[in-house]
Design brief:
Layout lengths: L4 E6 L3 H11 L5 E7 L2 H11 L3 E5 L4 H14 L4 E6 L4 H10 L3 E4 L4 H16 L9 E6 L7 H16 L3 E6 L6 H4 L8 H6 L6 H7 L1 E2 L5 E4 L5 H5 L3 H12 L4 E6 L5 H8 L3 E6 L3 H16 L7 E8 L7 H8 L3 E6 L2 H10 L3 H4 L4 H13 L23 H4 L2
Parallel strand pairs: 1-2, 1-3, 3-4, 4-5, 6-10, 6-11, 7-9, 7-10, 11-12, 12-13
Antiparallel strand pairs: 8-9
Helix pairs in contact: 2-3, 3-4, 4-17, 6-17, 11-12
């Protein structure tokens, strides 16, 4: 028997509280002190008893609940709060994390996700793991140019920094045609080549002073080398070392790569926790998806490592996300709407979309994707809308021909 972790459950639904209790039986050393149907009633009990673990549904009385969560995190030292909600809106996720919650789970609860979240909070409380986010390395990739991977990498990195307030590194490994600094209107003093040439002296102070901080945020940018000759002498081994060093300093590393499967790109993919495979709803793009999946399989990547992203999606597109899923046998993780004018305005002004048009569908989409990929959010279900329609041609047949 280990140390018991006192826990409070807050949920207005009795059946939901019973389900949570049932799931908690599969986690050792959890002691449910009390159940409440209203967080207003529960807050004094939690503060008085210094309850270390709170599980709370914020579907109702959302604003009040978030205010109380903020109060609890400042009143009870090292409290860990898991938030539940039927709502999956990215703004709610962001507000919840900023209030101090450590995990966000959507309802209806998936048992394994819930148990994993509780176990993580338990380990944090007991000190079995460090109370800091393990670095997540995400590479944005497409084997075809012009798909929009750089704009995705830039805006994703910016939104993760905005949401988590943790250090995020945005790395341009498109060694010959990198555009990240253009997209953010930066003129950095140092680049990848300089950092790699000084690997023996790198520490946190060196990196944070070398990478270009964007507009006093927690986003730091490492540009591609200005000369092709400098880029060519960088080795895959040096890239691997660089990524490992970045892992020790940053909570998130977002990598933009070239569209070719060269040794440097594969090194970045090998060293990534997630690969965002970007495409659009066109037949050539789907064929490229297939080629990438075939190669990823040969490289030994698991399915969980690859997240399929459909960019520039329009409801009027003839090919739909579910068509792509049927062809590939893989789920589409996320769809990003087509908003040419907003994105073009963003690129021309060298500003993230959220600074150009914060209320646009594109800005909201980047925020939602960032929330999904942050460590404190558990993804549950597909994000695109399935559309019932009459098939007018044999779509699968185009890809089943020998």
């Amino acid at each position: 028997m280990g140390i018991k972790i006192d826990t409070v459950i807050i949920d207005s639904e009795e059946t939901s509280r019973e389900l949570i209790l049932n799931y908690l039986q599969d986690v050792e050393d959890i002691n449910v002190l009390q159940q409440f149907s209203d967080i207003l009633v529960a807050q004094d009990f939690i503060i008085e008893n210094k309850v270390p673990l709170v599980i709370v549904d914020v579907t109702t009385k959302t604003n009040i609940s978030l205010d109380i969560i903020s109060k609890l995190t400042s009143s009870v030292k090292n409290i860990k709060i898991i938030v539940l909600s039927y709502e999956m809106d990215s703004n709610l996720v962001i507000r919840t994390l900023r209030a101090g919650a450590r995990e966000f789970l959507t309802k209806p609860l998936i048992q394994n996700d819930f148990i994993e979240a509780v176990q993580k909070m338990k380990d944090l409380i007991l000190g079995n793991i460090n109370d800091m986010t393990k670095c997540k390395v995400v590479t944005v990739f497409s084997n075809k140019g012009g798909i929009g991977k750089t704009s995705l990498a830039v805006n994703l990195a910016m939104e993760i920094a905005n949401i988590t307030k943790e250090k995020v590194a945005l790395i341009d490994l498109n060694m010959q045609m990198g555009d990240i600094t253009t997209f953010l209107n930066l003129d950095p003093s140092f680049d990848t080549s300089y950092v790699i040439n000084n690997l023996d002296r790198i520490d946190e102070t060196f990196l944070l002073s070398t990478l270009e901080q964007y507009n006093k945020t927690s986003l730091y940018v490492l540009a591609d080398p200005p000369d092709i000759e400098q880029a060519e002498i960088i080795t895959p081994e040096e890239i691997s070392t660089l990524i490992n060093i970045l892992r020790n300093i940053f909570s998130y590393v977002i990598i933009d790569t070239t569209s070719s499967f060269d040794s440097k790109t594969i090194t970045a993919l090998d060293n990534s926790d997630l690969i965002l495979l970007i495409g659009i709803t066109s037949l050539p793009s789907i064929r490229n998806f297939q080629r990438c999946y075939d190669l990823f399989k040969k490289l030994g990547y698991t399915k969980d490592k690859i997240k399929l992203i459909i960019n520039r999606f329009m409801e009027a597109d003839k090919i739909k996300p579910d068509d792509i899923e049927n062809v590939l046998g893989e789920k589409v993780f996320f769809t990003i709407p087509n908003n040419y004018y907003t994105l073009n305005d963003s690129i021309e002004k060298g500003l993230p979309v959220s600074e150009i048009a914060p209320d646009s569908n594109l800005s909201k989409s980047f925020k939602q994707l960032a929330a999904l990929l942050s460590d404190n959010y558990s993804y549950n279900g597909s994000k695109h809308v399935q559309i019932n329609r009459e098939n007018k041609f044999n779509f699968l047949g185009l890809f089943n021909k020998k």
